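Encode chain A's predicted structure.
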Amino acid sequence: MEEKEIVVPEAKRAPPDLAFLVCAGIALVAALVLVRNLLPAKQDLAETMRREENLRKEIETLKKERELLVMREKALKDDPKYIERSLRGQTGMTRADEFLVR
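Encoded structure for chain A:
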């Protein structure tokens, strides 16, 4: 039996499809436009989140300060000793039988 040589033709590369190239180009441009527009939005979001966190901390500080002021108000209304200490400290007031030494 005679051996036959099998010849496989070389695969020819088909030229890229023009429609595919146009679509790929449009998709690339669209992706670049989206990235260009989304980066500033991401930075704005990060800045907004930092600002929100700072405001939350400020709110907590103000709540604590408010609690102290409410306690002080109650003491000024109800505690004569506290009133006396406050007046002595702020104005340097003394009783009739005392004198102030500085």
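The longest helix spans residues 18-78.
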